[in-house]
């Protein structure tokens, strides 16, 4: 059995997600100790529990220590990752995309196609946005031989959550190929993006984010096409901006920023543009 000390390096929940995901792929037992020991609120939170239980369900495994605040967790995966349709609710604004990212590796080696419907947060700080996963990560992983698509059914923001994504994964045809990217810097051939806001159309938040970002990129000779979306289905007001650049050799480079209290539309637009230009 592998034992992993969750207090090492960043001491974050990423250690939990990655360890359990790879254990499910390999079919090996793993014990996690000192979970999130470096965090102000150590131990398992709702999003980590939801991810662990989802992986156990997906591969017919078992968990010991899966409770809120637990600092130790034992995961015994079964030998087969089972395809099918699954639905999970994180129960908070915890990142649905990070949970989906943990489910993706074993789903690539399932015995049948998988479809996951996950409810939680989609756009927030310190987590990959749903736009990034949909338009940067999954297309990049496709070059390795994965077959996955992400649909955004409803936006979700901090602190309410309530966003919904659907991840569809086809089993890989064989072993995944290494991802080899050229070391040389390639020129950008196209820039696109999405400016999304929920319940904020009167304040023109989507338009302001898009226009600020586009103006800064234009100064560097880039001509982005940023789609403006106004949503009324989310459980609360919120916003997010994502920009994706495609290079001449096919690489995808993303930058994004979620809205937050006292974070203006213009500040979001500037941050994303500056990140893309860096």
Helix and strand topology:
Layout: E1 2-5, H1 13-26, E2 30-33, H2 46-59, E3 62-64, E4 73-76, E5 84-89, H3 96-107, E6 114-120, H4 130-142, E7 147-154, E8 163-170, E9 188-198, H5 205-218, E10 225-231, E11 238-247, E12 252-258, H6 265-277
Parallel strand pairs: 1-2, 5-6, 9-10
Antiparallel strand pairs: 2-4, 3-4, 6-8, 7-8, 9-11, 11-12
**Oligomerization:** single chain
Strand order of the largest sheet: 1-2-4-3
Radius of gyration of CA atoms, rounded to a whole number: 19 Å
pLDDT averaged over residues: 96
What order do the helices and strands follow?
A: EHEHEEEHEHEEEHEEEH
Query: Could you name the ranges where pLDDT drops below 50 across 5 or more consecutive residues?
Result: none
The coarse overall form would be globular
Biggest pleated sheet: 4 strands, mixed
What is the CATH level 1 assignment of the largest domain? Alpha Beta
Query: What would you call the structural class?
Result: alpha/beta
Total number of strands: 12
Helix run count: 6
Describe what this molecule looks like in 3D.
The mean pLDDT is 96. The protein has 278 residues and is an alpha/beta fold. It has helices spanning 13-26, 46-59, 96-107, 130-142, 205-218, 265-277, and strands at residues 2-5, 30-33, 62-64, 73-76, 84-89, 114-120, 147-154, 163-170, 188-198, 225-231, 238-247, 252-258. It has three domains: 1-80, 2-Layer Sandwich (Translation Initiation Factor IF3), CATH 3.30.110.150; 83-172, RNA 3'-terminal phosphate cyclase domain (UDP-n-acetylglucosamine1-carboxyvinyl-transferase, Chain); 188-277, Dihydrodipicolinate Reductase, domain 2 (2-Layer Sandwich). It is globular, with a radius of gyration of 19 Å. Helix content is 29%, strand content 28%. The chain has six helices and twelve strands. The longest helix is centred in the first third of the chain and has 14 residues, at 13-26. The strands form three sheets. A four-stranded mixed sheet has the order 1-2-4-3, with helices on one face. Strand 7 (147-154) and strand 8 form a beta hairpin. One of its GO terms (molecular function) is RNA-3'-phosphate cyclase activity. Residues 9-194 form the RNA 3'-terminal phosphate cyclase domain.
């Amino acid at each position: 059995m592998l034992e992993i000390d969750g207090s090492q390096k960043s001491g974050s929940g990423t250690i939990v997600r990655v360890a359990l995901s790879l254990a499910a792929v390999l079919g090996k037992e793993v014990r996690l100790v000192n979970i999130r020991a470096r965090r102000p609120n150590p131990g398992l939170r709702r999003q980590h529990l939801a991810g662990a239980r989802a992986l156990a369900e997906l591969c017919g495994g078992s968990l010991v220590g899966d409770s809120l605040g637990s600092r130790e967790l034992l995961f015994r995966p079964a030998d087969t990752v089972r395809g099918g349709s699954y639905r999970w609710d994180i129960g908070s604004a915890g990142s649905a995309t990070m949970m989906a990212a943990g489910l993706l590796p074993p789903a690539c080696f399932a015995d049948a196609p998988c479809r996951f419907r996950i409810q939680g947060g989609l756009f927030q700080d310190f987590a990959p946005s749903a736009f990034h996963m949909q338009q940067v990560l999954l297309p990049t992983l496709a070059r390795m031989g994965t077959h996955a698509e992400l649909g955004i059914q409803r936006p979700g923001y901090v602190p309410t959550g309530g966003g919904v994504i659907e991840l569809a994964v086809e089993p890989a045809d064989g072993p995944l190929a290494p991802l080899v990217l050229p070391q040389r810097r390639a020129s950008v051939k196209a820039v696109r993006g999405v400016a999304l806001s929920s319940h904020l159309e009167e304040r023109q938040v989507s338009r302001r984010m898009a226009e600020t970002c586009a103006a800064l990129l234009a100064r560097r000779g880039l001509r982005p096409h940023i789609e403006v979306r106004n949503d009324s289905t989310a459980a609360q007001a919120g916003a997010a901006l994502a920009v994706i650049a495609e290079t001449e050799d096919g690489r995808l480079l993303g930058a994004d920023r979620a809205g937050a209290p006292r974070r203006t539309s213009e500040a979001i637009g500037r941050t994303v543009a500056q990140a893309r230009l860096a």
